[in-house]
Backbone:
């Protein structure tokens, strides 16, 4: 069981550490929200979404997305639309509007965006299925459960740490220039993923 736990830790960190839309958004909200508590909706939502993806991958339910090509194309299309819109919002966000009691990213908007970048990102979905889902087949019973719970726990710890890191980053920026730059970089990353997804969608349709 110890081997499965170590295996789960390594795989989970390997999947979530690379720069991606989900990580960028969690870090961004940790930095932009006036209080850390206001960033908790995105942290909790991202954690729940990753938990759903991991459980679906381990149980084999998520393979339905790969089985039905039309369903995968729908996920790609909706995901692209959300990412383009999210990029526009991030690009236009200024420190002054964000400091006004967090109006730019309310709790509802944080949750909607977090769900979209977590569950409507086929690249992350396929990574979860291909890596965690496949590797879980090496275990059974309590050992598989330990493997699954470990990957879920690492995911939650990472998101809380990411938001806290963003919070400290925001405190260091008294001029607001770094925050403005962070917004622009975040928007570019989001649009980059949208372009990547669009290329995959076109490839599926040809």
Residues:
């Amino acid at each position: 069981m110890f081997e499965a736990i170590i295996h789960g830790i390594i795989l989970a960190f390997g999947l979530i550490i690379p720069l991606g839309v989900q990580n960028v958004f969690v870090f961004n909200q940790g930095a932009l929200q006036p209080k850390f508590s206001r960033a908790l909706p995105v942290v909790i939502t991202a954690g729940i979404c990753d938990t759903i993806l991991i459980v679906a991958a381990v149980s084999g339910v998520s393979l339905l997305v790969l089985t039905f090509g039309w369903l995968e194309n729908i996920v790609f299309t909706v995901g692209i639309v959300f990412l383009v819109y999210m990029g526009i919002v991030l690009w236009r966000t200024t420190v002054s509007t964000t400091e006004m009691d967090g109006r730019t990213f309310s709790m509802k908007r944080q949750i909607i965006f977090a769900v979209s970048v977590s569950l409507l990102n086929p690249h992350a979905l396929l990574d979860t299925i291909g890596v965690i889902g496949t590797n879980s087949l090496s275990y059974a019973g309590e050992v598989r459960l330990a493997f699954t719970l470990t990957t879920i726990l690492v995911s939650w710890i990472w998101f809380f740490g990411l938001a806290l890191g963003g919070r400290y980053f925001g405190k260091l920026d008294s001029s607001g220039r770094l925050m403005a730059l962070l917004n622009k970089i975040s928007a570019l990353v989001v649009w980059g993923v949208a372009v990547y997804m669009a290329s995959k969608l076109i490839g599926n349709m040809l």
User: Anything to note?
Assistant: The CA atoms of residues 8 and 150 lie 6 Å apart.
